[in-house]
Design brief:
This protein is α+β, with helices and mostly antiparallel strands and 397 residues long. Among the domains are: 76 residues, Dna Ligase, domain 1; 154 residues, Nucleotidyltransferase, domain 5. 34% of the residues lie in helices and 33% in strands. Strands 3-2-1-6-11 form a five-stranded mixed beta sheet. A five-stranded mixed beta sheet has the order 14-13-12-17-18, sandwiched between helices. The chain has a four-stranded antiparallel beta sheet with strand order 7-10-8-9. Strand 2 and strand 3 form a beta hairpin. Helix 1 crosses helix 3 and helix 6 packs across helix 7. The chain is globular, with a radius of gyration of 22 Å.
Length: 397
């Protein structure tokens, strides 16, 4: 008799679009069932401004995803991003008292000490990522169990979030009659879906460029070295065009999507762009090269901010595996070329993979976060019987 199906869902509540991916776990493989994408409401500059509007958006996405997948969705892993996310290194120390074999309980205790950092008001620990263990002052150990030592230390990277923003998002999801299995940093989810473990060991960065926020994660070896947000996002590109071309935000977005590119050199001088205008106004044109000069300036600024974050953790020009661009705003033509020029490494789109029957129409960087959240949900449910379920359990199993 076949067991009850295990469904896995990932909810990406973005400032511009809300996406929900529904999959089923079958014999250790994740199979795509359905998805939805709806226009988001209730967000302002990457933060929730109207919780009820966010709930209504989630309800709409949930109804469409359930209709597409033919199943009822009761819970999901939810992505969290925005300007309130911060990453920092921490350290835990455990004196064993005498030389003895390191046990699982020692691992749990030293991880617990590393997680007990002094947080500012309205901050909470979102996720913790072990980097390496130090056994009797010898660093670089990935799994020290069964080693003999008198002192055990751990270096970790912690991701913190605003308690208020986290509770607002969880509350909006719960009000849509959806349980939150876990909240996950959005750039980490994109990395989970779009980057192979072998590629992470060479040194990679994932830059998730959304409409209202941009998040970055950096891996080297098996360890996360950076989780951060940068102040430039997709809406900045549109606002620059609106100001430079004297257009409304909506019309500037249309120009960006239809004619925009991140490199001005690729546009001939004699090509003109029709600018959307009210009926009472005469038709206007603008050189396409000028449009792309505006976008190129902002793209270069974006990756200079990313470069500054890389330099902060000593990873500038150390990304052998390159940079992966995800998010809806990453689809701007020639953006990978600008990333390569500024960051001096290979750049490419981070596309979701590893999910059976994934639609070709969704092979797009804007779906990487939602796909990664669904994969994370499947991993959690597959490990429910383990005491150390989740990412840490996977690492230390």
């Amino acid at each position: 008799m076949a067991g009850k199906p295990i469904y896995a869902a990932g909810l990406d509540v973005g400032g511009s679009r809300t996406r929900l991916v529904v999959c089923v776990l079958e014999e250790g493989r994740l199979r795509f069932l359905g998805a939805s994408k709806v226009e988001s409401r209730g967000w302002l500059k990457g933060r929730i401004a109207d919780q009820r509007a966010v709930t209504e958006t989630i309800l709409q996405a949930l109804a469409e995803a359930e209709a597409a997948s033919g199943t009822s969705v009761e819970s999901a892993v939810v992505g969290l991003g925005g300007p309130t996310i911060r990453g920092a290194n921490s350290r835990g120390v455990l004196e064993l008292g005498y030389v003895r074999e390191i046990e699982q309980r020692d691992i749990s205790r030293v991880v617990g000490r590393a997680s007990r950092v002094q947080l500012q008001e309205d901050r909470m620990l979102l996720q913790l990522f072990p980097q390496d263990f130090v056994v009797d002052e010898h660093p670089g150990h990935r799994d020290p169990r069964k080693m003999l030592a008198a002192r055990l230390e751990i270096n970790v990277h912690i991701v913190t979030a605003s308690v208020q923003e986290h509770n607002a998002l969880v509350g909006a999801v719960n009000q849509a009659h959806l349980a939150v299995e876990e909240t996950v940093f959005e750039a980490l989810a994109a990395c989970y879906a779009a980057v192979l473990p072998d590629e992470r060991r060479e040194g990679i960065a994932v830059v998730d460029i959304g409409s209202q926020s941009t998040e970055v994660v950096v891996y080297y070896g098996d360890a996360m070295h950076l989780a951060a947000t940068v102040r430039i996002c997709g809406d900045h590109f549109t606002r620059d065009l609106a100001q430079g071309l004297c257009l409304s935000f909506e019309d500037a977005e249309l120009v960006k999507l239809e004619y925009g590119g991140a490199l001005a050199d690729s546009s001939p001088d004699n090509v003109l762009v029709d600018l959307p205008m009210p009926e009472a106004r005469e038709h206007r044109h603008a050189p396409r090269r000028f449009v792309n000069q505006i976008l190129q300036a902002r793209a270069e600024e974006l990756f200079r901010f990313v470069q500054a974050e890389l330099s902060r953790v000593g990873m500038d020009r150390a990304l052998i595996g390159g940079v992966f661009l995800t998010g809806r705003a990453a689809r701007l033509p020639d953006l990978c070329d600008v990333a390569e020029r500024v960051l001096q490494c290979q750049a490419r789109f981070g596309l979701p993979f590893g999910i059976q029957d994934w639609p070709e129409s969704m092979n797009d960087p804007e779906w990487s976060v939602a796909a990664g959240l669904a994969m994370y949900s499947a991993k959690l449910k597959a490990q429910e019987s383990r005491a150390t379920a989740g990412w840490l359990g996977k690492l230390l199993k």
